[in-house]
Specification:
The protein has one domain: Alpha-Beta Complex (endopeptidase fold (from Nostoc punctiforme)). Helix content is 17%, strand content 35%. The protein has 3 helices and 10 strands, in the order E-H-E-E-H-H-E-E-E-E-E-E-E.
Amino acid sequence: MPATVLLGPLITRAEVIVRAKSWLRPSVSFHPGRRFSNEHGRYRTDSAGFVCMALALPQTSIEELTAFCSLISRDDLLAGDLLICACHESATRHAIVFERWTDRSRDSYLGMEQVHGIGTVRRAVHYPYEKEQDAFLPRRYPMIQD
């Protein structure tokens, strides 16, 4: 992990979800070169920017999120946790805020993300992420609390 990464303050799972939902009213357009400001600050409008805003983090990259967010099991996923794909080229790396399972089978979950060409969405996602079955791993931000 680079020494320049700064973690944010302690944050509750409920706060992460409220912050993530703030980009749904209305949906914030995806554009890595732009920034969006609301009551939670000013952040890039790409996947990393969205997750940083939701976690109240200083702006960082998917790679840095991967470095300081610990791997957890699928069964341990809770609201405010993340599913991160950091194994592709930087242009295709992605992160999703997990909200909740959609059913008892845990085959899909409600997640929020920045989608290229669409913007911020909240939708049911097949676990772990559509066709990218091996690329997305569940992770937990160290400053999150219940």
